[in-house]
Amino acid sequence: METINLTRLGWESQDFVRRVEAESEQNVRSCYQCGKCTGGCPVAFAMDVPPRQIMRMLQLGMQDEVLKSSTIWLCASCTTCTTRCPREIDLARVMDVLRGIAREKGSIGVPEVAVFNDTFLRSVKNNGRLHEVGLIAYYNLRSKHFLHDVLKAPVLFFKGKLKILPGRIKKVQEVRRIFEHTVQAGRERA
Length: 190
Known about the structure:
Radius of gyration: 19 Å
Mean pLDDT: 85
Largest sheet: none
Strand content: under 5%
Number of strands: 0
Shape: globular
Low-confidence stretches: none
CATH architecture of the largest domain: Orthogonal Bundle
Structural class: mainly alpha
Order of helices and strands: HHHHHHHHHHH
């Protein structure tokens, strides 16, 4: 099966495709648009552009459109697309790289998703696990949705579903080391 030739694209588009392929270690140009990734995606219904079309847009070097798409932020990284791909492309990994490039370029199509992602990871890094009350409070402050879902908290609290104080795992330092290792690996790759 033949792959897409980059020489038809402008140099900036070529650089974008090459960067995504290098960082993800995937040959996005080998995708032949079978649609199995989109067909199996449990979140495709909420995406503005299906995963198959993100791959095609990547092949065409459509950097701005890809990076501003909500699709890259809504991807759950469940790897269903990766498992189903007959070309063995790890599309979940490609989406992860695209999120990183979008952050770097300040081209985030759905800012609330990036705020949620940052807030979630911050909670896990600090506690070794998610602290739901802290996540909700910090997310609402950072996203400026100050009272979003505030009426749900008392109901969940009295049902024993929310803990006011965060629980911590015994070796939270190990989790922090994982975060630092991941950040360091990202810097080395760039």
